[in-house]
Amino acid sequence: MHQTNPHPNGKATILIVDDEMDMRLFITMLFETSGYHAVAVRDGRQGLAKAAQLKPDLIILDVMMPGEGGAKMYQALKDDPDLNRIPVIMLSAVDQKAYHHFLQMLNSQAGRPLPAPQAYVEKPPDPDALLALAKKIIADALQSPGHMS
């Protein structure tokens, strides 16, 4: 079991991983102006490094990114005993049905099933719905018996 980093100024930390600068800025501002500490990076490699450093309360992860994409980062998160309890919202222009098909293909290659993310949100996200979803997921994670604090 590991410790999460103390919340800066008592705020929950949200890591945003998206290759689109406009989306990173939009989501960062949305969460920062709603009382969260938001950190944004542009690809899965940076996302994994930042997740290991920050141990965020939630990760918002774009599925389709060049290089180390979101699905590969998600797989790496779930394979890491220090990071696998961090809740994830997958965010993508790909519809949920196509993503679930992709997840099934990854599972068949991995030889063991990957758990589904806490939520899947199609782009562009509704700001109020995304905030409400994040708040609920963070609250649920704090209530779970395996919480990292």
Summarize the structure.
With 149 residues, the chain is an alpha/beta fold.
Give me the secondary-structure category. Answer: alpha/beta
Give the strand tally.
5
| Shape type | globular
Strand content: 15-25%
Say what the CATH topology is: Rossmann fold
Number of domains: 1
Query: Order of helices and strands, N to C?
Result: EHEHEHEHEH
Q: What is the share of helical residues?
A: 40-55%
CATH superfamily: Response regulator
Task: Describe the protein.
Strand 4, helix 4 and strand 5 (119-122) form a beta-alpha-beta unit. Helix 2 packs parallel to helix 3 (70-79). This protein has five helices and five strands. It has a five-stranded parallel sheet, sandwiched between helices. It has one domain (10-141): Response regulator (Rossmann fold, 3-Layer(aba) Sandwich), CATH 3.40.50.2300. The protein is an alpha/beta fold and 149 residues long. 30% of the residues are buried.
